[in-house]
Amino acid sequence: MLAPSVGHYVFRRADQAALDFIPGQFIQVHFTMADGSAARRSYSLANVRTPGAAADGTVEMAVSYVPGGAATALFEALTPGQVVQASGPFGRFTLQPGDANARYVLIATGTGVTPYQAMLPALAAAMARRGVEVVLLQGARTLGELLYHDEFAAFAAEHPGFSYLPCLSREQQAGAHHGYVQQALPGIAPDPARDIAYLCGNPDMVDACFEALKAHGLPIPQIRREKYVSSK
C-alpha cells in the first residue's frame, strides 16, 4: 500500500515478452462488469528503468480504490498467479527529445504523480546531459497520502538540480507547502522563457494550474496535461 487508498501492483507478462514503453505512458486493463458488459481502465506505468536498458516483462502501476468500483473489486480480488488482460502502452504525456527548455515544472495530485516516478531516470539523464532543472509539486491532503514520497525525497537529495515540494491541504509539515499545488506556483516563479510544465491528476487541479500558468505567460504548447478521473 502506497497510501490508505492506493496500492502498488506488480505484474509480469504471461507470454514472457518485454513491455517497451516511454515513461509517462499508460496501459488499459480490460475486464467484465457484473452485468456482463466490457470495461477498461487506464493506469500509468510506474516502472523505473534506466534509459537505454533493455525492457523486460514487468508491469507496475498505482491503483486507487474507489468505493463500490468495479475495477477496485477486480484488483482487490486478485491473488498471485491470476491473469488480467491489458493493452498498450498508449499516450504522449512524455518527455520530448527535442525539448530545449531550462526547467521542467512537474505538478501532480494523487496517482497523477505516477508518470513522474517512471520519468526519474530520464530526468536524471537530462539534468546530466543539458543541465535542465526540475521542480516537482506534489499535492495531497496529508503526508501519508503522498505517493512515492520517499523515492522523490531521495532523488532530490542525490540530484541538486531536482527540487521537490510536497503540498498538503489538510495538515502542516516542515518542508511542505500548506495548501493546494496551484497556490504554490508563485513561489517557483513560472517563466515562459525557460519552463515546460506537466500537469497530471485531478481535473480541477489540472484546470486551475493550466489557467495559472497561462496567467504567468506560458504558451499552451509549453503546458502538457493529462487528467485522471476516478471511474467506477
Automatic annotation (TrEMBL):
Its cofactor is [2Fe-2S] cluster. This is Ferredoxin--NADP reductase. Residues 1-96 form the FAD-binding FR-type domain. PROSITE patterns: FAD_FR (PS51384). Coiled coil: none annotated. It comes from the Bacteria.
